[in-house]
Amino acid sequence: MKSFLLDHIKRLSTHPVLLAYRHALSQVIIITFIASLFIILHHPPITGLATDGLFGAWVNFSEVYAPILDLVIMLTMGLIGVYALVAFIIQLAHTAKIPVYHPLISGIIVYLMISVTLTPSETGWTLNPQYLGISGLFTAFVVGILTVSAHRLAHQLRIKVKVSASLSESLMQPLEAVTTTVVLVILAILSRWILGDIGLVFPQWLSQQLAGLLTLSASIWTVVLVILVARCLQFVGLDAQGWISLTLLPILVLGSAQNLDAFLYDKALPNILATGFLFFDTGVLPLLIALWVFGKNPDHRRAAKLGVVPAVFNLPETALVGLPLVFNGALLIPFLVTGITGVTIAYTAMTLFWVNKPLMALSALIPSPLGVFASTLDWRALVLYSVILGLNVLIYWPFIRRMNRQSQASTPSSDANVLN
Fold first, then answer.
1. What is the pTM of this model?
2. How far is CA 75 from its chain centroid?
């Protein structure tokens, strides 16, 4: 059973499109993080309170350098879709073993053609780049798949034609690139023409088609289900990161970008589910603390001490393999329960406005206590994280006591066997 699951999950996690998808989303997180820094610099949350000192200097800086900060924000947040497209095409083209620059150029052309709109103004027509940002993220993935697939097909046909007709490489390669790009441009023109009759562009139409799915997936129940499945995968010794990247990462990245956009225009943050939210999932850290504090088995305590620091940085491998937690039935129930408590309590607290919603997009390898504070910019998030961590440690406590009793009960019999 384990080999069957491992084989299928490995195939899924190494699928070329999914690898490119994860790579593109990781680049989006980096761009979003850079954008969030400049947005906060541009919009200090203490404008009405500070007139001198450090905060006063911050306010003055934001006013003096406003044009430069606006430009950087536009070149980051405003072009997230373009960056995602570039990263996606590069990764997918490398996997397909075709030249990168051909699909990259035609992909950008097609993406601009179907995403940029013209709006009437007093001086004529104005370009509206709205769908080059986060609103065009899923369009970027569709364009990337279509573009690389078309160029890969053209590349395969070129090899066959070259062999059969003995044509030179210098003639066939430009012909392949130009022909494929022209076909893709024609498809983009047809898309604008067909959707134009109903007053839409492709990113708008795609958003409408995905609206129901995104609404359903952006709920606490989806997060709970994904985390439970991830912990079951970890329990049987499988990597859960690919599963989380495939299911939750798009929702969290989209939520972070929308929160930053709302913050930029002084609006209430719309999303609880953003990249910083998963810092409230304490992972295996409560288990290691519980073993360290309550455990009686020297080997378990030693492994717990070694695993605490990696667990703080959200690296659970030491606990999974070193204890081991894998296939340890005595710890399965608390391992699953603590996966639910953290995110559920955090979601409830944010719904009740006890803690700010996540704003900053941060790497998952940042220590969790720092991550919950930096992502929300709220000291109360640290208090909430401490409460969740303490509660999860207590959840493990009775199970650790039971393991202690079992360990003590087995020790005399082991000694007797040695004497015999």
1. 0.77
2. 21
**Tens digits of residue pLDDT in 238-292:** 777 777 777 788 888 888 888 888 887 778 888 898 888 989 998 889 998 988 8
Distance of alpha carbon 152 from alpha carbon 277, whole angstroms: 39
**DSSP label of 52:** S
Q: Which residue is it, tokens 């810092």?
A: 279
- Helix or strand run (H / E) with residue 117: strand 117-121
Strands 124-128 and 117-121: antiparallel
Distances (CA, A) of 47 to 57, 76, 77, 418: 11, 24, 23, 74
Say how many C-beta atoms besides its own lie within 10 A of residue 299's C-beta.
Answer: 11
Cβ pair 25, 361 in contact under 8 A = no
The structure tokens 């690919």 sit at: 242
| Two structure tokens written together for 234 | 């970890």
Whether 112 contacts 40, CB under 8 Å: no
Q: What's the N-to-C CA distance of the chain in angstroms? A: 39
Return d(Cα 304, Cα 223) in angstroms, integer: 27
Q: How many of the other CB atoms lie within 10 Å of CB of 26?
A: 14
What are the distances in angstroms from CA 98 to CA 86, 91, 291?
Answer: 15, 11, 52
Unique residue bearing structure tokens 């052309």: 109
Helices (H) and strands (E) in the chain, counts: 18, 2
Residue 143 CA: distances (Å) to CA of 47, 101, 150, 285, 396: 42, 15, 10, 41, 48
